[in-house]
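Field reference: "sequence" (input) and "structure" (output). Example, Beta-galactosidase:
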Amino acid sequence: MRFNIFAVAVYFLSFSIGLSQTKEIQYLSGTDNENTVTWDFWVNGGRKAGKWSTIEVPSHWEQQGFGAYNYGRDYVTYGKNFKFNDEKGIYRHTFSVPKEWQGKKISIVFEGAMTDTEVKINGKLAGDMHQGSFYRFKYDISDKVFYGKDNQIEVLVSKMSADNSVNNAERLADYWILGGIYRPVYLEATPQSHIAWTAIDAKADGTFQANVYLENVGRNAEISVEIKDRNNKIIGSSTVKVGEKDTFKNIAVKTQEPLLWTAETPNLYYAHFTLKSNKKEVYETKERFGFRTIEVRQGDGIYVNGTKVKMKGVNRHVWWPETGRSVNARLDLIDVKLIKEMNMNAVRCSHYPPDKSFLDICDSLGLYVLNELAGWQKAYATPVGKKLVREMVIRDANHPSIFMWSNGNEGGHNKELVDEYRKYDLSDRVVMHAHHRPGNAINGIDGNHYEDYYSTQKILEGPNIYMTTEFLHAQDDGGAAAGLADIWELHWQAKLGGGGFIWDFADEGIVRTDFNGIIDVNKVNAPDGIVGPHREKEGSFYAIREIFSPVHIKMKSLPADFTGTLQVENRYHHTNLSDCSFEYQLIDYKKPYDSESGFTVKHAAAVTAGDIKPHEKGILNLSLPADWKNYDALYFKAVDPHGEEIYAWTWRIKSNVAITQSILAVKTSTAVELQEDSAAYVLKANGISVSIDKQTGLLSDLANEYSMKLAFNNGPILVSGDAIFKDVKTYQEGGNQVVECDFEGNLDYLRWTMHPDGWLKLDYKYNLNGDYAFAGVSFNYPENYIIGAKWLGNGPYRVWKNRLQGVTLNTWESMYNDAKAGIGPWVFPEFKGYFSDVSWMEFNTTQGKFLVATDQPDMYVRLFEFYGISGPKNYPDLPTGDVSFLDAIPAVGTKLAMGINNRPGVNGPSGETNKIHTPIERTLYFYFGIPKAEKENNQFEMPKENILTD
């Protein structure tokens, strides 16, 4: 939506009540990327260069069809002689200033412009050119505007800075380099005598103090402050006198037992400041804040309100595909809610300060924020750096969510700036360096990046607190949660573990206005997200959610002697589990031929937690009914004190044998026939015929009475090890016919058994001795024949050996897609991949449906060709064949561990190859078609016209 302020109304914001004067705001641009104002525009290079046109403000000019695109690492690709498009854009706009503002101080405020910005008001420079893309800056233009008349603003924005240190810090970076006025522009009007800004320090013991910065204080002045809660109740107040020459004044209040701010309990208050002169109120403003005490106890940990806290965090770029870094509060809210949905408690603002609305939402919903000065791998020079530190801290100091400042990233640290932060931050938060080389710890915090599991163990021995500001790497489908459980456990258990921030939140894909709106992630450079560009949830999202769950349950399966008691660990920092709510359900799963997927709830009950304090362990009693073992599974859900689901777990009650038996019943049957020709043994029953190759023992051909051929064949092939065909024999076993094949090598035998009802049973046994990426058997089936699949097992997302979390047991159904995480289309869950703990899977194909089931637990099904990470080759390697039934699957590594075999083992024990030293036996059941059954079983015959013939 776009609007013209002056065609509709002048838009004012007022920040207080009562009769005293307050700051008034009039927007010259729109308020965000969805509510814009049209300005005149001219650019000197790229698309639409050299002619006047119009542009929406705020926006990036590339997204409005101007200029050219640059990714920051282009200088790495093309060498030192590469020159960025040094585009310059001129903005012009006409605006009016109310007559009533005459005599006030009028400032023009830019929330963000990329990069060098020169402002003229009615042909006069507003002030020095501003350098730096991510910071609020303003000019006093009181003497340059006409009141009650039209005024002209002209803004020259240079995409590249005249200060090379700004380019080094901001532009030569591993992210998209865009241009333009991308955050709002507005006028501020205040009385000449007013409060310019405040810096608050509110401690957990209820003490409050603020430095109040003043301009043009009158005679006999004083400042008063009232602390109000969310119900507007005053809980404390104070007044101090101010001298005429004072530019700031400290004011203090002692409150009694305020509700404290943490990421788990984001309690907020308002400080109402009033400036009086000669007992007359001349100005009023308010600031939102929270009472909390942040401490870095060197050699120990990070403490919030006296409790040690470990950061479960993620790095976040400000980003939306259609509009780049020009966003809005609605999008900021989406991101905060998604981060919290992953059971995270922290976010790092990589690699620059975010929009203020994002910080407001972190305050109100509860996230610890590491706010960062830009400096990707090189630092600002000291003169410009000092200005930008001031701008960042003045804007953001009062946010209780900010627990620490980051003075640049990975070598982009100007140590001369470290002492600048405390000049403006009364609470004197610790300043750290987000770095990627050992030896850059500062103030007791080591933030070293991308250490593996084993080097993390070493760093956690000390002497510094280890809070890694980047770890793992979420490119494509690798890293974000692969190995996370191992590394997180190190941090959780270690005294010096401060947690860390996964790289990163969302794929930074830009909608290219020069290429028909395709989303460009700059190949392997920018698809680093746990979610896609439009926040599509990848499998890692849910795995992280389980791993970071503050209700920590280790039980993977119900023990034989289970009586309904769950052992839990409270991994909250400030919340008792008695404040959470819990529910269990006893459920039955839908069957293969039911018309829908999912489960039916047969019994449900609430569960009450006793007094289980943070960091303590306890027991939840489910009080199960006497017949609980008659159901398929136990479902258990935890909900936090704010009503948000923490996580839900499922455990099997019935065994795979019981589940298989419940779907094998077919009411029709015929006598089994065994036929033989020169190439194969042919088993026939109930309209189904199966050919077993005489020379290999493998399935070679299939048909049912409706279809000439079914292209599922050439299996079972061992995916690891050798199988040398030795001998075959056939025999009758009751009413069944058996084809049994013996082998030399790693495969001991295959035994095919055809039942009168058409079910084909396959028993096999193999032995391996060593380390293997995967183990099991494969078959061939053309991927282009697949329509979808339905299965009882974990889902709906695929898994890796070192990312088994985040999936739940259910009857799932998925249509075929060829989604590739990080590349697109961003359709999740992916159809292809490894799926865990599968009891049965029904394949829906252009040739009809067929079903595969197993008696044994812990079977993985691999579907078709896919990969975890793209690179010189796609990783990890896949088993042979198209569809695999596996007893072991591979782990996936990260972008930063892409050596031989993707090196997933560096990120922990779960990433190591499978160590197999005992024989493995498995039984598979196949039904090639839909079993005919009586209507009371909710099964049906497939009409002939629905079956495609070969």
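Residues 294-547 form a domain with the TIM Barrel fold (CATH 3.20.20.80).
Residues 1-18, 933-950 have pLDDT under 50 and may be disordered.
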